[in-house]
Structure formats: structure tokens, C-alpha cells
Amino acid sequence: TPESLAAAIRQVTAGKPVTPGRVKLSIPPLVENGNTVPLSVLVDSPMTEADHVQRIALFALHNPQPQVAVFHLSPVNGVARVSTRMRLATSQPVIALAQMSDGSVWRHSVDVVVTLAACLEGG
């Protein structure tokens, strides 16, 4: 539900405002099979001790659990980029958040259309 998504986002952001920008979520806008959807997230950050990404979080509104993954980073990573695959229960927005070392939180979302859904229960 939108409420469970909002609660999951609040848990990651600790209620701090979320600003669009600095985050680039790359995911196909149309996928044939929701069982394995490739994606990557790149955050514009120098990745220095003074200015770096602390974590990247992924959310999907209509999945059974809206928080899909959280990646913890440090300046040692050198580049704020993660790649993975996720399951999508149905067509929905996918949201990437990046929490920076200064406490700011940045966001990018992409609406993804799924023709064959994953995460189906029963059957």
C-alpha cells in the first residue's frame, strides 16, 4: 500500500526531506518478465571522507515488501554505483534513494511496466 511504502521510506530517511536529483536509476521501462529485472543506480558524489553516499535504498510500491534492498557505501567504494536484479510483482514505480554523509536524501523513480508479473502467491 502507499502507506507501507511511506513507512519504509521514513525508516530509511528518518523523516528527513527527500529531494529529486543526484540519483540516476537505470531500469528498463518495459520488462517482459518481472522475475528478474536488471537495474543500476548511480549517485553523483565525489565519494570523499567529507562528501559521500552512505547508503542507497530501493523500493517498489506493489511488491509484498516495499523495501527491496539497501546498500551501504563508504568513501572506499570510490564510485557510488550499485547493480542488481529485482523481482517486480506487477507494473509499478521503482524508487531509488541515496542518503549522503551530510544527512541529505536524494531520489529518482522510474515507472516500470511488467507484462508477466512475479511475486504471485497461490497457484
List the helices and strands and how they pair.
Layout: H1 2-13, E1 18-20, E2 23-26, E3 30-33, E4 37-43, E5 53-60, E6 67-72, E7 81-86, E8 92-100, E9 105-116
Parallel strand pairs: 1-9, 3-9
Antiparallel strand pairs: 2-4, 4-7, 5-6, 5-8, 8-9
List its traits.
single chain; mainly beta; 1 helix; 9 strands; globular
Could you please describe the fold and organization of this structure?
It is a single chain. The protein has 123 residues and is mainly β. Helix content is 10%, strand content 48%. The strands form two sheets. Strands 1, 3, 5, 6, 8 and 9 form a six-stranded mixed beta sheet that branches. A hairpin with a 4-residue loop joins strand 8 (92-100) and strand 9. It is globular.
Structural class by SSE content? mainly beta
User: Termini distance?
Assistant: 23 Å
Order of helices and strands: HEEEEEEEEE
Strand segment count: 9
State mean pLDDT (0 to 100 scale): 93
Largest sheet: number of strands, sense, barrel closure: 6 strands, mixed
Number of helices: 1
Give the percentage of residues in beta strands.
over 45%
Share of helix, binned:
under 10%
Shape: globular
Spatial extent as radius of gyration: 15 Å
Low-confidence stretches: none
Question: Briefly, what is this?
Answer:
With 123 residues, this protein is mainly β. The protein has one helix at residues 2-13; strands at 18-20, 23-26, 30-33, 37-43, 53-60, 67-72, 81-86, 92-100, 105-116.
